[in-house]
Amino acid sequence: MLGLTLGLLSSAFWPITTGDRRFRVLRKLMELLDYELQKSMISKRRPPLKRGKVSQRLPVPDHIPQPPYVGSQVLPEISSNHQIHDSEGITRMRAACQLAAQVLENAGSLVRPSVTTNEIDKAVHQMIIDAGAYPSPLGYGGFPKSVCTSVNECMCHGIPDSRQLQDGDIINIDVTVYLNGYHGDTSKTFICGNVNNSVNRLVKVTEECMYKGISACEDGALFRKIGKRISDYAEKFGYGVVDRFVGHGIGTIFHSEPLIFHHRNDKAGRMVEGQTFTIEPILTLRPTECITWEDNWTTVTANGCPAAQFEHTILITRTGAEILTNRASVEFQESMVIGLPAIENVMWIGSSCHRAKRAAMGASFTTKLRYSLAVDW
Ligand SMILES: *[C@@H]1O[C@H](CO)[C@@H](O)[C@H](O)[C@H]1NC(C)=O
Ligand SMILES: *[C@@H]1O[C@H](CO)[C@@H](O)[C@H](O)[C@H]1NC(C)=O
Question: Which residues bind substrate (predicted)?
Answer without folding.
Answer: 157, 255
